[in-house]
Amino acid sequence: MQKLSHCTSPPYSVMPMPTVVEILKKTQIFFEKAKIPSPRLEAELIFCHILKTNRVGIYMKHDMPLKDAELGELRSLVVRRGKREPLAYILGSTGFYEDSFVVENGVLCPRPDTETVVNVALSWIPKLDEKDLKNSGDLFIADIGCGTGCIGLSVIKQRTQTKLYAVDISPLAISCLRKNIELLNLKERVGVICGDLISAIPQNRPIDIVLSNPPYIPSQDINALEPEVALFEPRLALDGGPDGLSFYRRLIDEASSRARIGMIVEVGINQAQDVAQMFEQSKWEDVSIHKDLAGHERVVAAKSPLSS
Fold first, then answer.
1. pTM here?
2. 207 beta partners
3. Measuring CA to CA, how many Å separate 306 from each of 125, 170, 183, 258, 263?
4. Phi, psi of 199, deg, nearest 5
5. What is the CATH number of domain 104-307?
6. How confident is the model at residue 2 (pLDDT cuts 50, 70, 90)?
């Protein structure tokens, strides 16, 4: 009778499941080759989404093996980002100011630079205590070309004496906006209007402050922008006409007879002086320019002719 030999290992190799830290490093390298900005951070944010945790949680699970389902979902999201689809579209949301906002395809992605508009607006609106709130009237804000609603919703969340008209011409933006209103529990304080600029707000409705991040990219420059913008974001939210200033002319003209306090607008690189001059030529007062965190002139604010 032949003796059976004892095998110390199976006749095939068992590949261990890759761990979080191993796949995270590979994702970072892939993003570096694809020229993704902040490759490590974006890799971490995708892992947070997959593992339903925060960035600290990733490193708490650094040696945990990924399941097949998690790997499959991860590959799908990483491939999309490698093709330069905006991360906000891939994850379905992005952080802005103090909250997370739903972001959907066809709607402009909120950017940190735009938080400057919120900061300037809040500097105009006093924070009232409960006693003062009872004696104050409502302050009416219009967020024109609101997109996700990130500007206007962030402001009224911080200042409870305010109400908001959120206006956008895009039905896709309006759909996304409604989700963010629900998410932030602000439904009772927001009027949603699908229409074109300030004229979409009925004439009998008061407006105190106009806020806007309008399209400001010169038409001929759009195709040369980063692929995330040029290939994926809506041209409707980008195209500011031949010189990038078309919407500022319209906004200033329409707001001159409607805004009781003033207007605050985001501007593109090297546009602040031109937009400030437009305000001054239209008899707006106390025109000021504000820089973003990168030191760029990002916001122009002015007090309305009606305020004096």
1. 0.89
2. 259
3. 17, 30, 35, 8, 12
4. -60, -15
5. 3.40.50.150
6. very low
